[in-house]
Amino acid sequence: MSRNDRYQELFRQALRIRLVEEKVIELYPSDKIQSPVHLSIGQEAVAVGVCEALRPEDAVYITYRGHAFYMAKGGPLPELMAELYGRRNGVSGGKAGSMHLAAPQVGVMGASAVVGSTISVAVGGAMANRILKKPGLSVVCFGDGATEQGTYHESLNLASLYGLPALFLCENNGLAVHASLAERQSYRILEHARSYGIETVRIDEGWDFLKIGDVTRQVTDAMRADGRPRVMEVMTCRYKEHVGPGEDFAAGYRSQAEVEAWMAKDPLCADTALVAELKPALDAEIDQAVAFAEAGELPGLDDLLTDVY
Question: How many Å is the Cα radius of gyration of the chain?
């Protein structure tokens, strides 16, 4: 695939994610969306770049801000929309909503509303693969705030000690709800990871899906060769509030100028001609997904205890 074709394909994937979430914003006031939403708008390039380098056997453990990784890894869109609607035809039967998405059939192993809680699960998955001699990497996504959790430190230690093929991917948007890095962390994320003997890499251009894809492929190729963990930190920016469909500049913890500076580098904002070319087909796909969701039934009492073990 030529660089131009690759750019257009990754652009299409990222735009698809953004348009889906903009549709969620449009629908949210109607109360049809049956769960809180943590939107990935602004962070799409991370998901599409990383997932470009992954294989079907690689598992991704996502966060509650997980729509982008769900779609980038191949999670079905109609079932995603139905899940947000809380319908039986959702990917988890309407029980997971936005914050607990999972699609194991494509390697999306699930999200949790508890910050950092999938990190140790991903390391467990990597250990299981090692014991069972199965191929595949465990990729766990988390925000910078999750690095403050004890399970993160324990997981780095275990992955390094046993030499497990786990990729720790920090989507660093500089915020934990409304708190900045300077207010929360006395350490540097990558320096801290290196203290466990783990190789690290940082990408500052979190809007550049081509660079993210290239670096991720280099990292994952090395992991497949040596079976060792890695830590990747990708600097990024969320355009919307922490939870919900709105803006948050009135809260005073960041300025609109900061976000606009990031948007000026964002291909989805800058390449208006390609947006205009791709948007009609993507809008049609999204409308079909909404129709699928709205045609679905709501779960009943007989669904209450299904899938409970």
Answer: 19
CA separation for the pair 69, 101 (Å, rounded): 10
Q: What is the pLDDT of residues 78-130, one digit of tens each?
A: 999 999 999 999 999 999 999 999 999 999 998 999 999 999 999 999 999 99
What tokens does 283 get?
């809008």
Range of the domain at 12: 3-297
Our count of domains for the chain comes to: 1
Question: Residue 307: inside a domain, yes or no?
Answer: no
According to DSSP, the β-strands at 138-143 and 175-176 are: unpaired
Q: Assign residue 61 the CATH number of its domain.
A: 3.40.50.970
The DSSP call for residue 203 is E
pLDDT digits (tens, 9 = 90+) for 211-250: 999 999 999 999 999 999 999 999 999 999 999 999 999 9
Instruction: Please state, in angstroms and rounded to a whole number, the distance separating the CA atoms of residues 49 and 211.
Output: 8
Contact assessment for residue 242 and residue 225, using Cβ atoms and an 8 Å cutoff: no
